[in-house]
Amino acid sequence: MIPFAELNSQFKSIEPEIRAAIEDVLTTGRFVFGKHCEGFEKEFAAYIGAPYAAGVNSGTDAIHLALAAVGVGPGDEVVTAANTCVPTVAGICASGAKPVLADIDAATCTLDPAAFEAAITPRTKAVVPVHLYGHPCDMPRINEIADAHGLAVVEDCAQAHGAGVVDGDTIRKCGTFGHAAAFSFYPSKNLGAYGDAGAVVTGDPEVKERLRMLRNYGEERRYYHSVRGFNSRLDEIQAAVLRVKLRHLDSWNDARRRRAGLYAEHLKHLPLRLPFEAPWARHIFHLYAIRARRRDALQAHLASCGITALLHYPVPVHLQKAFAGLGYGPGRFPESERACRQVLSLPMYAEMPLDHVRAVARAVAQFHEPPEAA
What we know:
The chain is an alpha/beta fold. The longest helix has 19 residues, at 249-267. The chain folds into two domains: 7-246, Type I PLP-dependent aspartate aminotransferase-like (Major domain) (Aspartate Aminotransferase, domain 2); 249-368, Aspartate Aminotransferase, domain 1, CATH 3.90.1150. Helix 4 (59-69) packs across helix 5 (86-94). The strands form four sheets. Strands 1-9-8-5-4-2-3 form a seven-stranded mixed β-sheet, with helices on both faces. It has a three-stranded antiparallel β-sheet with strand order 7-6-12, with no helix packed on it. The protein contains 13 helices and 14 strands.
């Protein structure tokens, strides 16, 4: 059996560090807003290359609170991609704004800048570009359009911890292009907690202060509430775990890239569309998402071989029952709909044995072999 991912293998590789970090929290007895939350915020901000970070309860909360902190609220519209995980849109809705969808670029499956621009109306207040599967959006072009229209940019970096845009000899990481950026640390992410957790990073000190009030009931100082806020705090145990894991993130991302390269080497001759990495991008392969015309049959074949492959995502946002009220119908976003019919995520995790990568590739190739003549 080859699982889609195996989180226990990562834990075993760093078990002494994890146990020591959790033991420290239990010993000190400070479980909310202690040294580990403060330490992780500083360390994660430094890793991303942003001045500030605020830990919150989840990636969805991170989108909601980031939008609220940049001034988005009821009556506003926020543009995002039609092909994304529903939490992106849930975060927009939580802010009180109306999500407005736009189609994706066929190569990267991320927000198409031209489609974003076409979706702008007088009520548009912000855009949430989603760095899907671990590949960055075309942020220079998206920012150019947003600046021309006076829009806030809140990046959805839930799948992009360490991904970025190549800038000469350096990589400018996702999370540093907008007014704020939302991260999820759900356990399956490249940087995952042992439960729900998230963070918002920003370079704006005023946005930082609003975030830190909003996540804690709008408290300016203890028992003094300046705004109506929420309960969305990063607890000390998750923060302690994330501090340990952050030290390993780059090596884990490199391991994912090596496995992606091995997949590409073995699958390049097949009639598939393999994950694309733009010349200006650094992909961190949160998912290894191929595209196949007979996607469902291929998934079933892999399952018969004991291999778990998953669909990310089978139904675009505009065709979800929960969002029928947005008024979009089938055919409105053809690239998003095509991706949802074709994308299949192959097993991918940093500790995945290379023999398993080869075995998955062999099974995919076997599916495409012509039937033997009778």
